[in-house]
């Protein structure tokens, strides 16, 4: 079994807070992996470590079969990875097309390929008529779609998508879901976070759930479906009793 992502005891502390606590992740190549958890569970911190934006406090990780603590190997891996980070990290004073072209060139794609992929991605994300606008002038959803286009431009073997559907309209969301399914069909691995469990249930083949930095569940989606819904499973492992306890006194009267 080939693994696209493997971590062992992956840990990140911020002062006294342990945001990610001894994570052992196993993500098989060619799977659509939903990485779930409540707010503040450590999902974005994990993605930042896996994509080299944040150093782990301890533990090890292998991405696309390479130990990314080796900087030369990490650089090679980055060529094969597309990322939508939590904060999107666009450049305000570039137009949509300029930004995509910049990202394409960073991946060292030939100019003609960059031009063609920019055309197709801008059309797919219904941003073609906005391509001359500065990204600072984009709406939140438009920024998200541009970040997704940038993640797809290298035709990556592994995609890290932090909340890819948040803020994206229904039409673009459907197009994006199809595109991601196509990426997985041709052998790529998609690792995404989302709070929209209905989308994850439809799309993902595998699920990991974190709570307070710890992995509390990891299985194939089929296993979850056999025993109920993803929402039920999620509430079971992160604590559904919380819902009972948190009631507003003035609404209960
Ligand atoms: N740079 C930082 N400095 C200090 N604490 C941080 C930092 N980044 C994250 N944290 C803390 O680490 C914990 C995990 O945060 P993280 O952003 O990884 O959660 P998340 O699961 O992505 O949450 P959400 O679903 O709300 O986006 C939180 O308690 C957060 O406050």
From TrEMBL:
Keywords of the record: ATP-binding, Nucleotide-binding, Transport
Residue intervals of the ABC transporter domain: 5-237
Listed GO MF terms: ATP binding; ATP hydrolysis activity
Keyword check for Plastid: no
Keyword Nucleotide-binding: yes
InterPro entries, per database record: AAA+_ATPase (IPR003593), ABC_transporter-like_ATP-bd (IPR003439), ABC_transporter-like_CS (IPR017871), ABC_transporter_ATP-binding (IPR050763), P-loop_NTPase (IPR027417)
Superkingdom field: Bacteria
Name of protein: ABC transporter ATP-binding protein
């Amino acid at each position: 079994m080939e693994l696209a992502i493997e971590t062992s005891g992956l840990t990140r502390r911020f002062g006294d807070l342990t945001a990610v606590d001894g994570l052992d992740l196993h993500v098989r190549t060619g799977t659509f992996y939903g990485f779930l958890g409540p707010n503040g569970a450590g999902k974005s911190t994990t993605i930042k470590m896996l994509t080299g934006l944040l150093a782990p406090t301890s533990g090890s990780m292998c991405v696309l079969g390479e130990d990314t603590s080796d900087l030369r190997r990490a650089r090679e891996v980055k060529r094969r990875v597309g990322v939508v980070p939590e904060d999107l990290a666009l450049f305000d004073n570039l137009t949509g097309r300029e930004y995509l072209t910049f990202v394409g060139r960073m991946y060292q794609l030939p100019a003609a390929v960059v031009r063609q992929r920019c055309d197709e991605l801008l059309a797919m994300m219904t941003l073609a008529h906005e391509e001359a606008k500065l990204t600072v002038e984009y709406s939140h959803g438009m920024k998200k779609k541009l970040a997704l286009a940038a993640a797809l431009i290298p035709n990556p073997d592994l995609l890290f998508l932090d909340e890819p559907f948040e803020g994206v309209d229904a039409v673009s969301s459907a197009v994006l879901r199809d595109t991601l399914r196509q990426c997985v069909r041709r052998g790529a691995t998609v690792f995404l976070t989302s709070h929209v469990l209905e989308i994850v249930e439809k799309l993902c083949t595998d699920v990991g759930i974190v709570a307070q930095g710890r992995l509390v569940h990891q299985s194939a989606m089929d296993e979850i479906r056999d025993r109920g819904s993803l929402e039920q499973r999620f509430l079971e492992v992160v604590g559904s009793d919380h819902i009972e306890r948190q009631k507003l006194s003035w609404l209960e009267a």
